[in-house]
Amino acid sequence: MSPLRAVPRLLRVLRILSAHGIDDLLPNSRRPRGFGWLLVLLPRPPAAIAALPRGDRLVLALTALGPIFVKFGQILSTRRDLVPGDVADALGSLQDRVTPFPSEQARAAIERSLGRPIAAAFETFDDVPLASASIAQVHAARLAGPEGGRDVVVKVLRPDIHARIGDDVALLRDLAHFVERTHPNADKIRPQEIVDEIESTLAHELDLQREGANASLLRRNFADSPDLHVPEVVWSHSGDGVLTLERVRGIPVDDLIALDAAGIDRVALAEKGVRLFYTQVFRDNFFHADAHAGNIWVDASRPRDPRFIALDFGIMGSLPERDLYWLAENFLALFRQDYARIAELHVRAGWMPATTRMDELEAAVRAVCEPYFTRPLSEISLGEVVVKLFETARRYQLTLQPQLILLQKTLLNIEGVGRMLHPGIDIWATAEPVLERVWRERRGPRAMLKALRRRVPDLLAAAPDMPMLAHAFLAQATSGTLELRIASDDPIRLERRSRSGQRLAVTLSLAASLLVAAVLIALFDDSGTRWLGIPMPAWLAGGASAIAFLRASRMR
């Protein structure tokens, strides 16, 4: 957006923010020269608005600025590491309901994307949208052709949405630059990082092909599940800017009157919600990260054994495998009230400096958790405990990935839904056995064998080179010419890596020796039992070699 075009929009933004008293977030001591005169020219908030908390005033201001800013606020509500908790809570209440755009534009966009007329793709198409949001709107339809008679919903992007978002993101960048120069805590707020996160999330939401792929994977993960139904994607009627899904019907999860009228067992439903969250995160490492009440329905056809219906798959979460491991171990330690283990895990995960004093960190963790454990377990919020732990750990320079913050936000949402359905739910008693079982299955012998099977082709492909590589490695090790180079500014971490390097060298040597033995046995042993034409001792040596290589890969 050119500077001249940006001026009217910037003035409008400043006028609306000032009219809602948002300028008081900037301390007087850090306001730029002339800022006071600018405020004189801008409208001031009425007494009724000025009396509201700052989070509520920000919600009103973003709503007045329009649907794209509402979306920005919704995304910002997931970043509790970047905005104060009271502001994040208020932003979480933003509702993304805007005026629909004309059906003629929707029809034209669908026809361009599918490359055929509406009449050829759909037997019927409802011009009145079922829902309209800032990014897209949804129409009911019925498929034509071989799949005729099947009810679907068609999601289509708003016209010129890419250009509008580009202009608004550019404007936000200018505002972020202003905050960086003027706010005393800009290094903690990190306004440019906030805009980066918003831009990335919006780019994902604009990619309906990506949303369809998310829905397909989540549906596959819960195929035939009695707990969760995910609408099927109709790929033949989806394209760039259009997504067609199976039409589902249910009751919004926050409509408690309708749930009770349908005879839904809300206690069972609440417990299922908690179990689903832990299963998505720790079994599949793929979770619905926009799990507010508007995106969760309940299947009313099964009142005694109810299940959820998931909607809107634009924001999904996934963690690096390493972070998933440390997170699961932290949760298990938290369930067991093992504060020393929590402190140790935070440092071993690399989330905190290796120089952190364990006794101080353990004491800080205990100070956070103990007040919660004096309450009945049914009144303890695991999400609140996790938030408090992360806030405490930040004093020790905690560094977290954005995905972990997204997970934290989702955990709070899920617990909120669970307690809304069943105020007396014991989150801990419901969550702990699920995490124990799922994590045992994920890290157990069957999971190890499955990982081995995936790596066997790579190991076999590398097998011809292994004898010479092993010979060269062992020759260097025995002659004393083997070098291990490690760069680190942290002496303690350097010492740990040195020890790890020694263990790695020994493990690799053992793995290489076993692999060489497996190859030699396979080539020259003609006696004994064979499987697929390969002697069983060779299989055993090869399997032991693969396990050693897996162990070595985790040491790196």
Describe the structure.
The protein has helices spanning 3-19, 35-41, 47-50, 54-65, 67-76, 85-91, 103-114, 118-121, 161-182, 186-189, 191-206, 208-221, 256-261, 266-284, 321-335, 339-348, 358-373, 382-394, 402-421, 427-443, 445-462, 466-479, 491-524, 536-555, and strands at 122-125, 131-132, 136-143, 151-157, 228-229, 242-246, 251-252, 287-288, 296-298, 308-310, 316-317, 530-531, 534-535. The protein has 556 residues and is an alpha+beta fold. It folds into 4 domains: 3-95, no CATH class; 97-165 and 197-248, Phosphorylase Kinase, domain 1 (2-Layer Sandwich); 253-442, no CATH class; 446-555, no CATH class. β3 (136-143) and β4 form a beta hairpin. α15 packs across α20 (427-443) and α16 crosses α17 (358-373). The radius of gyration is 28 Å and the shape is globular.
Report a brief summary of the structure:
The protein is an alpha+beta fold. The chain has helices spanning 3-19, 35-41, 47-50, 54-65, 67-76, 85-91, 103-114, 118-121, 161-182, 186-189, 191-206, 208-221, 256-261, 266-284, 321-335, 339-348, 358-373, 382-394, 402-421, 427-443, 445-462, 466-479, 491-524, 536-555, and strands spanning 122-125, 131-132, 136-143, 151-157, 228-229, 242-246, 251-252, 287-288, 296-298, 308-310, 316-317, 530-531, 534-535.
User: Count of DSSP helices?
Assistant: 24
Largest sheet: 5 strands, antiparallel
The overall strand count is 13
Mean pLDDT: 78
Overall radius of gyration: 28 Å
Question: Which structural class do the helices and strands define?
Answer: alpha+beta
Q: Globular, elongated, flat, extended or rod-shaped: what is the shape?
A: globular
Low-confidence stretches: none
Please report the distance between the alpha carbons of the first and last residues: 46 Å
Number of domains: 4
Strand content: 5-15%
**Assembly form of the protein:** single chain
Helix percent band: 55-70%
